[in-house]
Amino acid sequence: MENESDTSRHFLRQWIEKDVAEGRTGGLVVTRFPPEPNGYIHIGHAKAVCVDFGMAELFGGQCHLRMDDTNPTKESVEFAENIKRDIRWLGFQWSGPGDGEEPGYYYASNMFDKMYAIAETLIEKGQAYCCNLTQEEWKAYRGVPEKPGKPSPSRDTTPERNLAIFRDMKAGKYADGEWCLRAKIDMASPNIHFRDPVLYRIRHVPHYRLGDKWCIYPMYDFAHPIEDVLEGVTHSMCTLEFEVHRPLYDWVVDRLDEMGLLPVRNGVKIRSQQREFARLNITYTVMSKRLLLKLVTEKHVSGWDDPRMPTVCGMRRRGFTPRAIREFCARVGVSKTESESEPALLEWCVREELNKTAARRLAVLDPVKVVIDNWQGGPRDVEAPNNPLDPAAGVRKIPFGREIWIERGDFMEVPEKKFFRLAPGREVRLRGACIFKCTGVVKDAAGEITEIHGTWDEASWGGNAADGRKVKGTIHWVDCATGVPATFRLYSSLFTEKDPLKDGPEEFLKYMNPDSFKEVKGYVEPALANAKREERFQFERVGYFVADEKDHTPEAPVFNRAVTLKDSYKPA
To answer: Does residue 44 sit in the same domain as residue 139?
Structure first.
């Protein structure tokens, strides 16, 4: 991870360094990122991507991308393909052998046959059994951590009988929930997850890749270590909620070792290991895929890529950059303690990068016309830098004429005490052009100002008065004759509450921000007629914007605000 301190990542880094030094990796560090293709990845997944791929890069190893598609009820090709697209956009590429489709790319579903064979072996060894207790019944048998549970009535069924039931499960002879396969471990374990956990359940649901081939599916806790072992993964990094699942992970790996299934690399038996780090929590949003799906399906947002969503594709459409997202994840760091991050930190990272890289342009979002009554001759060109922080970006010429657009908010008919912009009888500097003095206004029947009239000081061309007089206010503009009509989409936080889930996940919609999206019509300088989709700009005095990746066209430009120009937030 870029710019990440040794302190913030030391426990994962030191863990891997120790294994490398002691020869447990067979000369190759292998990590993996295993998303379930049941939604689009979000900023929390982006942190995991940075950790998994970043650690592999740090040690010159491989990071696999694995679709953990063991739950057929919610998965799709659409989700899988977009996960790949988002990871590539973040700047990472999976590597390794792969399972046939492309290098470094795996499907859990391609291992179903092997998982099933492993399950049968566990049954034959008396290490797994079929159980027909209902979920409610099992809760009573499992008990509580402080007190040992009771064994299922099926626990001592013979391997032969269990094998027959399991094969009938596979053949589709039982209904969903009628039977399951459990590991036979320890009903007295204080770790509730270690009390005969489910390995397989019945699901009569077609798989998005395999169709009706299977009606039983492995549980994540069973599939995950098998996948890691079969892929030769050395270091499996998960978020903290999986810490209590680690004993089961190790139990499965031990069973695979007994079966002689651990891979050997350069003479070293590779034993997959799991460690956990704190997930990324961010305020004023929700991160649950279920809740994000609810926002999409109920049309509270325009889709998974709505720029207000915490999804990677949403942030991309908003104008955030891969580098800024990675920098944010690095600043959050990797720890063993849960914490919350402010969206202001992410926006600060975006602002810091775009300030250095984004081309400057002029845009007016709430236009009112200014007429220079004493203007003589035709239009002139104003020369302006494309980026004052990057001399190599060069300069451009911007047309300027008798009529221009300015922001309505840059004029007050009766100015407040600390208002230093345009008002009747007052001078302002028109950015890069000249000094202008307001002499009057034109209003419509409703009293709305439609035009501002005044005069320019020709001797001030270039922006400064020839006599040296000081002009406090400087405002931006767009030439009326050459300005390009444009649509601007202004985004802010999707929720008004720091913790939208404070009243429970079913109540989060009541905290949606009604002002999180606003669309306005204005004008941009003519150079922006050639803006490409996803091209980012600083609209001077306004903010950082991006040409929308879907709706923007040269004929009808659409710009999304990524972040405002300034913010009081400063990172610690």
So the answer is: yes
Is 289 assigned a catalytic role?
yes
Catalytic residue among 279, 294, 323, 541: 279
Indicate the pLDDT class of residue 566, thresholds 50, 70 and 90. Answer: confident
Is 265 part of the annotated catalytic residue set? no
Which residue among 36, 120, 276, 353 is the active-site one? 36
CB atoms < 10 A from the CB of 419, how many?
Answer: 14
Q: Of 9, 255, 289, 402, which residue is the catalytic one?
A: 289
* Alpha-carbon gap, residue 383 to 408, rounded angstroms: 24
Contacts of 267 (CB under 8 A, 6+ apart): 26
Statement to judge: residues 340 and 368 lie in one domain: no
CATH number at residue 241: 3.40.50.620
The residue type of 134 is T
Range 393-405 average pLDDT: 97
Whole domain around residue 16: which residue ranges?
Answer: 6-282
Confidence (pLDDT) at 114 = 98
Cβ neighbours around 438 below 10 Å, total: 19
* Identity of residue 268: V
For the chain, helix (H) and strand (E) counts, in that order, are: 12, 29
Kindly report the pTM of this predicted structure: 0.93
Say yes or no: 354 and 369 in one domain. Answer: no
279 carries an active-site annotation? yes
